[in-house]
Amino acid sequence: MRLVHASLSALLLLTQLPALGQRSDDDAGLRLLMQLSSDADWKLLQTTPLDFEVHHPQGMTRIGDSFYMTAVETIVRPEAIPDSESKYDRTPGAGKGYLFKFDLQGKLEATISLGEGSKYHPGGIDYDGENLWISVAEYRPASHSIVYAVNPETLDVTEVFRFDDHLGGVLRNPADGAIYGLNWGSQTLYRWTETEARRSPALGYAKTKTGSDVDYQDCQRVTEQAMLCSGMRSLPIDNTHYLTIGGLELVDLSKLEVMHKIRVSGTAPGGELLTRNPFWFEYDENQRGNFYFVPEDDQATLYRYAPARQ
User: Which domains does the chain have, with CATH numbers?
Assistant: First the structure.
């Protein structure tokens, strides 16, 4: 496990955590993440083929012995609108949004549909200890979204609020009830109080993301202070060539600022970057950190990695 030069704010956060013998599992997980700089010394521990078609997966979380994963099935692909005077750069297309529940052996346990009309694209998800939080948006930027709370046992769906932007991911911090979201390409990070979200979401706090290397695909709360986000970005090399990079980034929830970065270059057998689709991180009962990824579309596999030295 490689040590890195953390930012001053990140180091201050580390010093504010309880001593090693007194910390909670969340604090220990955060400490582990802060000590990682890349996946260069990770080990692949397990591959679990999923026995159902995942379409294009988006967000993932785990509760007990079950994983929950959102996905979009695109039936009619959005098409570019050239020289449009509209605020949209493409047509809405058509599709279906799903929430899959599957067990540790990759067997499908339940499926529900999510969305409404042109809002069929679920995003990154998280679990707040009571509900799954899921956004479903139009499949185009600067559009519209619905945020749902889903009971993980019954899979009953409750609409929480609607928002005039594409939300590519959402989570709720149970410590203070604040709800966080990110838009298309995660260029803007949002924060709402529960009152704002339910009554006047337009009044929520918005901040342009800075200091980030990747566009976030999926985020999860790791402590009351921080969320962990995964994603990728294509960087231009010249007029015809691009370099695609992947990464995980810790974001300070109070400031909505990047506090630590972990470069991820590992790929699935088909060449897809691990952070292309959803991920989930856990700090388990054996005091080990585990990273789960589903980078492939359609017929996919759940990959579990862990740092070689912890």
Answer: 8-307 (2.115.10)
